[in-house]
């Protein structure tokens, strides 16, 4: 058996001034304890400390497929596509079993929140059982998955097992940061883990300072971009899915080595066309609403519109965003697709 590797990065608390700024807006249970990891200072919840080495040493299988994204970049959409391509377009199974059970979220831990919700649902055995499943660390859940595993994570490549992408395939999805910020703002406002209390301008201010979870945004993307020519790395843009779904699905199928007829791929595209996908109960995580993890009126899969950020940014914010993006794309050929 291979000797476990020591986790190579330091883990420290977020600096007091930055943490205080975050806590003005993030009031969720998990938001009380924030950490930064490694030289790039990836901002994560404190429960990551207990799992960092287990994640870094996760045994990989050659047929694993990792979906890696910064949050709100098209993760769920890509998950559904990759799972169906991997499992023979089994729409019946996809409709029957929630996506989060078929494709595990690597590093989803809600211990503090679950302890709180257990009090709310005391006596309801069904809900208590569902809550306990969410307490199980992602590494344990992933280890129990049958092959081939389709695994979702928001962790950057540098915090993943170091044999990636040599050992198995990775699909990395990036999205225009302005659209990411809008979608992430809504998510953090609706999830009990975050409980963001503020307007979009306040969220954007934190976003560009790398004071929201899984940031820094650009370091996250650049790590994968630098690996884009590796045969086991597919780097996708969300905008490719939203603007040319059929061609992008075909590219994903080819990358995964899956052969389907044009008719079969058309059926898949109809199934996962955004409006159909958004209304599919298997991806709406309604059970999280019932458990109290997400606001009852919240939408996990929102509008899916590329360029929708224009409805949220005033002239000053748009100028700031353009300058911030240009600054962070210096000395790299990474560019986001143009959306009219």
From TrEMBL:
GO molecular function, one term: sulfotransferase activity
Sequence ranges assigned to domain Sulfotransferase in this UniProt record: 62-332
InterPro entries, alphabetized: P-loop_NTPase, Sulfotransferase_dom
Keyword Transferase applies: yes
The UniProt record lists the keyword Transferase: yes
Family, per entry: Belongs to the sulfotransferase 1 family.
Listed name of the protein: Sulfotransferase 1C4
Organism (species): Papilio xuthus
